[in-house]
Predict the structure.
Amino acid sequence: MRACEVDIHSAEQMLAGAGEAVTVSLPVASNSENLPLERRPTLRSLRNAAEAHAISRTLQETGWNRKRAAQLLSISYRGLLQKIRQYNLTQQKS
């Protein structure tokens, strides 16, 4: 669990840029320990939610410049495109 906290903290710092605090909301019920095992969020679902959030936020911050977002996330451009499709992320029209 500690390693997960460190990774999320590192990701938050990268997203914040200048060291600002970033709040990442993950789909975890505050009383998840009281839920039956089959209804608790899995590690995979939490990881996917955190990854989708980080990608979505980075795309918004770069104005959907996918090349720059991939660089900031330290993943390949093709990898980013795959993740965008995997998480069904779309650019919000304003």
User: Anything to note?
Assistant: Residues 32 and 40 are 6 Å apart (CA to CA). Residues 2-86 form one domain. The longest helix spans residues 43-61.
